[in-house]
Write a structure and sequence with these properties.
The chain is an alpha/beta fold and 398 residues long. Helices cover 31% and strands 29% of the residues. It contains eleven helices and 18 strands. The strands form three sheets. Strands 1, 2, 8, 9, 10, 11, 17 and 18 form an eight-stranded mixed β-sheet that branches. Helix 1 (16-27) packs parallel to helix 3. The chain starts with a strand and ends with a helix. The structure holds flavin-adenine dinucleotide.
Length: 398
């Protein structure tokens, strides 16, 4: 066991949330340490990382982390023909998730944060006016780190906070598997400039499949579905292979296989703070289950927490009581509604009746909506454009 070390804020987890918080705090003159068991943040890039343009601009993400741009949607439903929508201009980017983490880490370090890779926070306890955390590093070596505030930014694992209490509502969980494929340029062009989704029970019961473009010659092929303890669900790899076959992507070289969970409570009522421990990003359910996306929401939680934590460090710890309500406001009422819709929509997609509802929805969207409006629906959760009364029918609530 090495000597006791000290910092103002210890952040467990070098995901988008932990790294952005580290940068913002370091810019505020705070001593910050980020630890993560990953040795190389470019590795273990589990996320598909599709983002709308607004988020790319808001977080000032540079070109080097944007593997491809997209300006349209291609939705394959239960029927034969896909539906397509295209805008004149870019609507967003597919990020290289490893590059994003690498860039965020460089930014945080340039601002003065320290990064300790290959280390995990194992446990912690309150000590004096802060916390003592036990870290485990290479070869099982242990280190005790003292800090005034400790942040759980370990994503859906919630390694320090643990799962939410029953009163906060159960965790809804989705699991995704994705392959990074190398394909010839003409085949890549077929899928370029758009986000393509495969919807309906014949593609992925209770979930969806996707093809996203990366840099020229590379595609991400994935499947994701919500967990339903009342049904037996086919293995995700089997569904992925089925997708690969139907989309004629069998000849492609698989460069990387990855995947992971996304787990959130629908109402986000879990405690965001326990003493000097604070939760950030997916660890406090910022991951959205409708589109299986959460990078921008996780980073939003860092922007909300940073100024409050700086005030707490300046002697006003009571300010942190504002964290959970401010984050709720920042995510907006549509966030919770979209979570409820996600549960109903995806879990209901396992039968011909569910497929018929979906086909009707796709036909309606094709007739009345532009690519921009589809983005507003799927990324801004602007369901009210459909009339809130019609919505439950549209998305299968009734
Ligand atoms: C298959 C899949 C596809 C997805 N696609 C998209 C998408 O297209 N768009 C989108 O916006 N989002 C997508 N997401 C969700 C998105 O990746 C997450 O919402 C986002 O990464 C959450 O960021 P975070 O910083 O909260 O946590 P994470 O990115 O999960 O980071 C947590 C970090 O904590 C580290 N850690 C774990 N345990 C410890 C410990 N004990 N001590 C220290 N560190 C620890 C981990 O190594 C990890 O680096 C997808 C997720 C999955 C699984």
């Amino acid at each position: 066991m090495s000597d006791l070390q000290a910092c103002d804020v210890l952040i467990a987890g070098a995901g988008p949330a932990g790294l952005l918080l580290a940068r913002l705090l370091a810019q505020g003159g705070v001593s910050v340490l980020v630890v993560d068991p990953l040795w190389d943040l470019r590795h273990g890039a589990f996320s598909s990382a599709a983002l709308p343009l607004e988020a790319v601009r808001h977080f000032q993400l540079p070109e080097q982390v944007q593997a491809a741009h997209w300006q349209g949607w291609e939705l394959h439903g239960p029927g034969e023909e896909p539906y397509r929508w295209f805008a004149e201009q870019s609507l967003g980017a597919v990020l290289d998730f490893g590059e994003l983490r690498h860039w965020l880490a460089a930014q945080a370090q340039a601002a003065g944060a320290r990064l300790q890779l290959g280390w995990a926070v194992r446990q912690w306890q309150a000590s004096g006016c802060g916390a003592s955390a036990s870290l485990r590093g290479p070869g099982g070596v242990e280190q005790i780190q003292h800090c005034r505030w400790l942040v759980d930014a370990t994503g859906q694992r919630r390694a320090l906070l643990g799962d939410p209490p029953a009163a906060a509502g159960s965790l809804v969980s989705g699991e995704g598997v994705e392959w990074l494929l190398q394909v010839p340029t003409p085949q890549w062009q077929r899928w370029a400039h758009r986000l393509s989704f495969m919807l309906g029970s014949s593609w992925v019961p209770q979930g969806y499949g996707w093809v996203f473009p990366m840099q020229c010659g590379q595609l991400k092929l994935g499947v994701c579905r919500l967990h339903d303890g009342r049904r037996s669900q086919p293995p995700l790899h089997q569904l992925l292979r089925g997708l690969q076959q139907r989309l004629e992507l069998e000849g492609a070289t698989v460069l990387d296989r990855h995947g992971g969970l996304i787990r959130s409570t629908i109402r986000r009522r879990e405690p965001h703070q326990r003493g000097v421990l604070l939760g950030l990003g997916d660890a406090v359910s910022t991951g959205n289950l409708l589109g299986g996306e959460g990078i921008r929401h996780a980073m939003a939680s860092s922007e909300v927490l940073a100024p409050l934590l700086l005030e707490a460090l300046a002697g006003r710890p009571g300010r942190l009581r504002r964290y959970a309500p401010r984050l709720k406001r920042r995510l907006g009422w549509r966030w919770s509604l979209s979570g409820r819709l996600a549960r109903r929509t995806w879990l209901g997609l396992h039968s011909p009746a569910g497929d018929q509802r979906l086909e009707r929805l796709l036909v309606g969207l094709q007739q009345n909506r532009s690519a921009e409006e589809l983005s507003a629906l799927l990324f801004d959760y602007r369901f009210e454009r459909y009339g809130l009364k019609a919505l439950p029918y549209l998305l299968g609530w009734r």
